[in-house]
Structures are given as structure tokens and as C-alpha cells.
Amino acid sequence: MDEATLAAEDVLVIALTDPRGEALERWEPGAHIDIRLPDGEIRQYSLCGDPDDLGSWRIAVLREENGRGGSRYIHERVVAGTEIAVGQPRNNFPLVDGASYRLLAGGIGLTPFLPMIRELARRGADWRLYYGGRARARMAFLPELADHPDRVHILPEDTHGLLPVAQVVDELDTESRLYCCGPEGLLDAAEKAFAARGVGSLHLERFRPRPQDEDAEQRAFEVLLAGSGRLVKVRAGQSLLDALDRAGLDVPSSCREGTCASCETPVLAGEVDHRDSVLTDDERASNATMMICVSRARSERLTLDL
Predict the structure, then answer these.
(1) Which CATH number goes with the domain that contains 110?
(2) Which of 154, 172, 259, 302 is 20 to 30 A from 268, comparing alpha carbons?
(3) Burial class of 43 by CB neighbour count within 10 A (0 to 12, 13 to 18, 19+)
């Protein structure tokens, strides 16, 4: 790590560089990386710098006192010169073609939008960003956003209330793209408002799992691995990923919560019980892929392209 600075109250901005001085991989707006902590836990952070800067990757970390401990470790223990294990960029939140864009950012959920608005400005696109936070002192990157005074709406909750989600959704037409990243309450409001409006397309970014039905069935099922013909049994209450691990298969995975998409696997046959926080409703309905860390089977057997 090359540099760490505070961008707002409890928001630490970190510049990551290769310790050997080598160029980093280029990425697209919306991408994130995994950071592996010393205890082996993995956290995902959006890249919020310049995709054309091959010398460094920039992330921002919100200190969360009631979190799982990863953000506190980074705030308290990471300083310039600290070596951090990171993965390559992945993008579950890409910019898709559209006639206009409306961006809803809540708190640290602003980070994926910083490279997005640079790209949209470069294209000369029709876009607006609505950025909310508990208070202005906790809202990072305000100087950068000041470059776009006519398109960026800074709306601290303590002075403006909640973001005007329904009003923003009412601006959409069939070629509009609505992007949203932030706390679950904001994402839920965006989903409900968009469902009522039903035009354009909705794109959400989650770094915490979507709330699950605690009473959802966890029955046993079988998985046929198309590549080898092996049949793996998944016990009730056991994850498919754990069952494959126990069977000796080395399957890529990271978050184990259905948020990062590193374990996305093609489905050749069977009906999936999707429990991830990545796939859209249309992608789920297609039954083409699944996140094997959290999703299960509705049918007695699934056939996977493994």
C-alpha cells in the first residue's frame, strides 16, 4: 500500500501499488477487488480511482464499529508501506449502454460511481447523481463531485431527509439506466419504486448479502458434474460449495455470501433456488448460472458445467 488518507469522517482512502513497481491490471467502472485480511477473511471494495491509472488502485473503507472487524483492522493497522493481499478486479456492476443514467448513492456506496461519472462525462451522456449520507461531514469525495455542480445533488440526511428515490425513478424512460449502491434500505426502496414504474433497467450493487428468509428450505439434493460424470450429494443445511470442497474439487470462491460472483457456475440442467445478491431477476429466470456458495436446488438434481 502506497498511501492512506481520510476523505471524510471515518472514511479512509487507500492507494494500492505493486511492491515491485509493476503495472496493475486495467479495470472498468463498477469493478471491485477482494482484500484478504491477516485472519483469512476476505472483504470486497469498489475501485474508485482512474481506470487508466495503471500505477495504483484506489479504494475507500468506511469504519464500521458494528461490522465484522475488517474495516476496523484496516483503519487501525494499515499504514503506508503495509503489504496487503488483493485479488484481480471483477465487475458485477458494469455500465451498460443507455440513453440516460440516474445514479443513487448512499454513504460509502458512492465509490463505484466516481469512475462511472468520469466515463459518462467523457461520453457526453445524460446523467445525474443523487448522493446521500447521514451528515455532510461523513460524505467523502465532495471536492471531486464539485466538478459537476449541475449534475450532482448532495443531499445529507440530517438536512434533506432520505434520497428522493420515487422522484428519481419517475424521471426514467424505456432507455434509462438506474444504478443504485448503498445500504439495504436504499436498495429496497429503489427496487420497490422501480417495480412500480417498470421502465428502463435497474442495476444494484451489494457488498452485504440480500436479506434471506430464515425459514427457507435447506433440503438435500444431488449435483452431477458434467465434466467428470461424478455425482456429489449435498446434505440438508450444507452449502453446495462446501460439498464440492469435501469432494476434493477446487472451485474458485471468495466471499461465501453470494455477493462477489467469484463462484458463479454454469447450470446445464435442473432448477436453481437462487439465494445470491448478484444476479438480476431476468438472469435468475434464465437458470443459466448460479452462485454455488449460497444457492441451492429446487429440483432433486442439478447438472453443472464442472
Answers:
(1) 3.40.50.80
(2) 259
(3) buried
